[in-house]
User: Which sequence fits this backbone?
């Protein structure tokens, strides 16, 4: 079993778009991959399971991968959380959001 920790970087939290993309990442691997948020556990092959975590920006999550490619699977999930490609926007710790005080734009 390979374990690692990640933090939700998006101002909107772990919402539908990154959840669907996480499922796509997980399906590239043979390993079983779970995210743990406190007592809640999500199977990364199920976007509904991921959404049920209700993980907001700044929430720490534990990644657990078990299988023949567990090292690569855990690494890919960690990279997903550190990249800006999850929902087309920049992670919260980038200068773009830092200039606005870390706050997302308000809808018109």
Assistant:
């Amino acid at each position: 079993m390979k374990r690692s920790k990640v933090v939700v970087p998006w101002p909107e939290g772990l919402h539908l778009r990154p959840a669907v993309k996480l499922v796509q990442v997980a399906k590239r691997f043979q390993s079983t991959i779970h995210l743990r948020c406190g007592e809640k556990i999500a199977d990364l092959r199920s976007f509904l399971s991921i959404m049920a975590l209700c993980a907001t920006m700044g929430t720490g999550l534990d990644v657990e991968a078990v299988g023949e490619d567990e090292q690569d699977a855990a690494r890919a999930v960690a990279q997903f959380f550190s990249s800006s490609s999850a929902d087309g926007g920049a992670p919260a710790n980038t200068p773009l959001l830092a200039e606005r005080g870390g706050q997302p734009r308000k809808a018109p």
